[in-house]
Amino acid sequence: MRLLLVRHGQTPSNVDFLLDTAIPGAALTPLGERQAAALPEALADEDIEALYASTLIRTQLTAAPLAAARGLDVRVRDGIREISAGDLEMLDGHSEAGRTYMETVFAWSAGDIERRMPGGENGVEALARYDSVIAEAADSGAGTVAMVSHGAAIRMWVAARADNVDIDFAAARPLDNTGVVILEGSPSDGWKTLTWEGAAVGSTVPAAEAGPAGRPLDEVEQRSPRPGDGLRRRR
User: Fold this and answer.
1) Would you call 82 a catalytic residue per the annotation?
2) Would the pLDDT of 230 be above 50?
3) Which residue, 22, 53, 140, 199, could crosslink 59 as a Cys pair with Cβ 3.0–4.6 Å?
4) Smallest Cα–Cα separation from 171: which of 106, 227, 107, 96?
5) Closest CA to 126 of 75, 92, 160, 99
6) Would you tell me how many other CB atoms lie within 10 Å of the CB of residue 96?
7) What are residue 50's phi and psi, to 5 degrees?
8) According to the 3-state scheme, what is the secondary structure of 144-204?
């Protein structure tokens, strides 16, 4: 199966950078709507046979133009929602809370799946729910499947499941809104990442230790906010 993991379009949450992962979540900004509208053309060469979105409204809004263009139903599944921030919900992604969130996410990719997000899920639970939707898609017999999901969840799952992407690679490469990671494989045979936001992935490429949105941990509190997945500042 060819698997396209698509990050949702921009939301107000992304612009302001607080940990915001709860359902139903924010809608798209005007830019996010334009990004979603551009997806059908961006994926014109992909023979997509099934389309999934998470239970957060931003992914369903992102998937809608693609669904309309291809005549597909959007299959909404909780399993591919963003990783819950738990007790860290709505805290500043530039703070220690943001560091804890991303360190926990990539600890799961490294195999420390019993580690729990403060007040939230552990890696066993997060990987199991994501795996279940991937398995459903594989069992459907579709040759190419697109799933509109979330930045941290996509990066965590790919680093844990793809043979040619390691934690350092995924942690240092945040996905832009509507960025796409393309994989090929199956739950039984494993997964190989073909492209990461359009760039071919031929081998594991180590990168610096990273924090929220892939920034080096020692820079997290020194840089000004920028869009990041699942993050919003209270006004």
Assistant:
1) yes
2) no
3) 53
4) 106
5) 160
6) 12
7) -145, 145
8) EEEEEECHHHHHHHHHHHECCCCHHHHHCCCCCCCCEEEEEEECCCEEEEEEECCEECCCC
Q: Looking at 8, 89, 94, 150, which residue is catalytic?
A: 8
- Rounded Cα distance between 217 and 107, Å, is 15
Q: Mean pLDDT, to the nearest integer, of 89-109?
A: 90
Burial of 176 (0-12, 13-18, 19+ CB in 10 A): middle
Please identify which of the residues 82, 89, 94, 150 carries the catalytic annotation.
Answer: 82
Q: Does residue 197 contact residue 175 with C-beta atoms inside 8 Å? A: yes
List pLDDT tens digits, range 114-143.
999 999 999 999 999 999 999 999 999 999
- The predicted model scores a pTM of 0.86
136 labelled catalytic: no
Whole-number CA gyration radius for the chain? 16
What six digits make up the tokens of 174? 């945040």
d(CA 211, CA 100): 9
